[in-house]
Specification:
The complex is a heterodimer. Chain A has one domain: Cytochrome-c3 Hydrogenase, chain B, CATH 1.10.645.10. Chain A is globular. Chain A contains 15 helices and eight strands. In chain A, β7 and β8 form a beta hairpin. By secondary structure, chain A is α+β, with helices and mostly antiparallel strands. By secondary structure, chain B is of the alpha+beta class. Chain B folds into two domains: about 35 residues; about 100 residues, 2-Layer Sandwich (Alpha-Beta Plaits). Helix content of chain B is about 20%, strand content about 20%. Chain B has three helices and seven strands, in the order αββαββαβββ. In chain B, strands 3-4-6 form a three-stranded antiparallel beta sheet, with no helix packed on it. In chain B, strands 1-5 form a two-stranded antiparallel ribbon. Chain B is elongated, with a radius of gyration of 27 Å. The termini of chain B are far apart. Classes of the chains: A alpha+beta, B alpha+beta. The interface between A and B is medium-sized, with 32 and 26 residues.
Chain lengths: ~375, ~160
């Protein structure tokens, strides 16, 4: 998306201004990973932002072609590592749909609960880092404090804190830990008491508001045109929640409201994510008390062979719509796998919304887009 | 908003935030969740399902329950498990039977996905909760899981 570079206005100033290039990243803490941004700037006004990818390319889609369907699941942990559980679910749902396998209700409910916990964990981390990006270090500690409780839940049930790999095609790897329900029930009131604290600490803060309000405005039309999804698109008024429109797992029985805003600036994206955390808590509360009894897994063949054809499944991760597209030639390995990651399309609109702002605004905008670079660069 | 009311509003929001941090500052000892690692090594206990590294438990007779079926080797996505096996004569039946010579585990390549332990039909391998895995040389990360001179426990079948 090329944006016309305007001639610098020199009429008001006696100084001759010249545009120049500067690299932001790949080793820049505000780019949240190895993302390199080529900035064309005039003084501190941004004229052009070109993301340069490829620093963390691991050819995961190609690796999938040599792995069996059970093995693909653990590779998706390494895409968007903050919503790894939802990524795993996407692959499992895609394989199950292809096999026309009906998983037990228990599996569906557990998957949904874990998915929403992942979303809260991702958003708390984002909240902490968002504060840090605009200069408030305390948020980082508070965000990680609450995320720690969720990580403990994951560690006890799944065995890992970040790359869980708990879903397998056909169900779950193990049944939930006996402490799982108790721990989740402890977490919900704890987090309900902490969320207003988030608001008092950061949302109402005058410095934070001045940094985010009116910064990086994205219109609804542009959000649709750029293929934005998740909180970024919803902050612009584009209702696109996959959980609402294409419910998967146990989400079809759940009532929840989709967090929407119409302003489209950084502060709107912030508010949408905070609202999503409340909604996720509500979803978990609806499910946690009545996890149905049953098996945690349907037996599948040791070697899963998908029928010939192509299969697509999309889910809503913490960042937006994540899609898995598998083309099968009928063998034990997929012929081709394509992941539709939310980060890439959300990053593509960065140039559009950051031009004309200052470098500091770019950092705030990037923080609210909430990019995870391994997701963008697979 | 007027100039002075703007300043007043700004200071008030800052104080609201400082009330939150101040509350934690005054109750610092009560709500501290920081773990004093590595000073708490004696009391630090990982969850039982925590995936540290793959181990093969042996009993007191130096026997394990790995039959050498190679299901873990097949399940592993990145070739971390390598099984060198042979056919040995069973003393009871006199028939040749598959038995492992070496169960090699390349810990440096392992992603702790858990597929091998999930695939094992005889629970021969399991997860250990050890997480301090740094070594000075990466060759030390290649481990032979079956102990020298060990053999498969009687009665464990594929």
């Amino acid at each position: 998306m090329e944006t016309a570079i305007k001639e610098p206005t020199t009429s008001k100033s006696n100084f001759k201004s010249e545009e120049y290039f500067i690299n932001m990243g790949p080793q820049h803490p505000a780019t949240h990973g190895v993302l390199r941004l080529l900035l064309t700037i005039d003084g501190e006004i941004i004229k052009k932002v070109e993301p340069d990818l490829g620093y963390i390319h691991r050819s995961i889609e190609k690796m999938c072609e040599n792995n069996s369907y059970q093995q693909i699941v653990h590779l998706t942990d390494r895409l968007d590592y903050l919503s790894s559980h939802i990524n795993n679910e996407a692959v499992c749902l895609c394989v199950e749909n292809a096999l026309e396998l009906e998983v037990p209700e228990r599996v569906k409910v557990i998957r949904t609960i874990l998915g929403e916990l992942t979303r809260i964990a991702s958003h708390t981390l984002w909240w902490g880092v968002m504060g840090m990006d605009v200069g408030a270090l305390t948020t980082y500690f508070y965000g990680f404090r609450d995320r720690e409780m969720i990580n403990d839940i994951f560690e006890e049930t799944c065995g890992a804190r970040l790359t869980m790999n708990y879903n397998v095609p056909g169900g779950l790897m193990q049944d939930i830990h006996p402490n799982f329900v108790k721990r989740v029930k402890e977490f919900i009131p704890h987090f309900r008491s902490k969320l207003p604290e988030y608001d008092r600490l950061l949302t109402g803060n005058i410095i934070f508001q001045k940094r985010t309000k009116g910064v990086g405005i994205l219109s609804k039309e542009d959000a649709i045109n750029f293929g934005a999804s998740g909180p970024v698109a919803r902050a612009s008024g584009y209702s696109c929640d996959v959980r609402k429109y294409h419910p998967y797992s146990a989400l079809d029985k759940i009532t929840f409201t989709e967090a929407l805003d119409t302003t489209g600036d950084s502060f709107a994206r912030y508010k949408v994510r905070i609202a999503e955390m409340w909604e996720s808590l509500a979803i978990i509360e609806q499910l946690i008390d009545n996890i149905p009894e049953g098996d945690f897994k349907v037996a599948t063949n040791a070697v899963i062979k998908l029928p010939k054809g192509d299969f697509y499944q999309k889910v809503e991760t913490a960042r937006g719509e994540f899609g898995v597209y598998i083309i099968s030639a009928g063998t034990k390995n997929p012929y081709r796998v394509k992941f539709r990651s939310p980060g890439l399309s959300n990053l593509s609109l960065l140039n559009h919304i950051a031009v004309g702002g200052k470098i500091g605004d770019l950092v705030a905008t990037m923080a609210t887009i909430d990019i995870v670079v391994p997701d963008i660069d697979r | 908003m007027g100039y002075f009311s703007n300043i007043y509003h700004g200071i008030r929001t800052l104080l609201t935030g400082m009330r939150v941090t101040g509350k934690y500052f005054l109750n610092a000892r009560k709500g501290a969740i920081t773990q004093q690692y590595p000073d708490n090594r004696d009391t630090l206990k990982m969850f039982e399902r925590f995936r540290g590294e793959v181990v093969m438990p042996h009993d007191e007779n130096n026997e394990h329950s790995c039959t050498g079926c190679q299901k873990c080797e097949l399940a592993c996505p990145n070739g971390s498990i390598e099984i060198i096996w042979d056919r040995v004569i069973d003393p009871e039946t006199g028939k040749k039977k598959k038995a492992i010579d070496k169960h090699i585990y390349h810990f440096g390549m392992c992603t702790q996905c858990g597929l091998c332990v999930d695939a094992c039909p005889s629970d021969a391998i399991k997860w250990a909760q050890n997480f301090e895995n740094s070594v000075y040389d990466r060759t030390q990360l290649t481990r032979i899981l079956n102990k020298p001179g060990s053999k498969v426990r009687a009665g464990v079948e594929e």
